[in-house]
Automatic annotation (TrEMBL):
Organism: Mytilus edulis
Protein name: Putative nuclease HARBI1
Domain DDE Tnp4 stretches: 112-262
Principal location: cytoplasm
Cofactor names: a divalent metal cation
Amino acid sequence: MAGFALYNVPPQRRHFRNRDGFSLDFSDEELRARYSIMVISDLVREVIMVLIKSPFKGLDKGTVSRVVQDTTAALCKRQNEFVKWPRRDAEKNKIKAGNYRIGGFPNVIGAIDGTHIRIQAPTTDEASYVNRKGYHSINVQAVCDADGKFTNINTSWPGNAHDAHIFRTSQVCKHMKRTSNWESGILLGDSGYTCRQFIMTPYARPANEDQTRFNRHHARTRCVIERTFGRWKRSFHVLHSEIRMKPEKACSIIMACAILHNIALWMNEPELPEDQEEEMPNVDAVYNGANDGRRIRDHITQMYFTN
C-alpha cells in the first residue's frame, strides 16, 4: 500500500481589496449620493426572495435565514426612530397642511387603513390567519402622513382580524382618546371604521349635496394611504408574494420593509425650509360642540363643504 506524506501547509492570509474606494470621510450628502438607500432596499429584498423561493447558487438556506433574521431584527430595534407619531405642533401642522393640499380636507394628521400580506398556512392556529378573501395573511394596519411616510404601523394581527377591532385595541386609538380635541387633529378612515370624534368616515348614504361633497374630499385625501401601500409593495416584491415563514418572522419582515420605506423617503425627499412651508387657510372652524364623531362630521361638512 502506498504511503502518504503529510505536510504542514501554513494558512494563507486573505487580502481584501477596496474595490470602490469606500471611505469613512464622506459627508452625509456625499454618502447619500454615493450609496443610495435604494441599493440597501434592493439588497434586502433580494436576500428575502432567495430565502422564500429556494437556495440560490452556492448559498446555504440556513445561512441566508440567519442573515435575514439578523438584518430584520436590527431594523426592528430602531422602529421608534424611523416610524414616529407626530408629537410637536409644528409636525402636526405640516401634516395637516400637506393633507389639505391633497384633497381639501381640514385638520387631518393621518390616513388609516389595513392591507393584507399573504403568508404560508401556519401550523398553529391556522384558521385565524384566513382572511375574508380565503387566503392566509397578516392584516397590517398603518397610518401615513401626506408624504406617504408611515407614522404608525401594526404588523401583529392575523388575517381574520377586522380593521375596526385592530384600531380599537391599538396604541394609536388610545393616544387619540387621551388627546381628543380639534387641535390634536383627526384621522381619515373608510367605512370599515366607526365614526368617532378623532376618526372621520364617509357618510354611508349622503342625504344632500354637502354630504356628497364631504365624501368626495374625504376620499381624495384618504387615498394617500392606498397609494402608499401600492408604492410600498412595489418597492418590496416580497409583500406581493407569499412569505413562506412562520407568522412571527413574517411580521418582522413586514416591519423591516416599512422602516426601509420610510428611510428611503427621508433620504430622497429633503424637507422644505420653514419659511417655504405652506399653511391651511385661516378658517375659524374650532369645534366646541358635543364630543361625538357624527356631530363633528356634520360640523366639518357645514364649515368646509357647504356652498
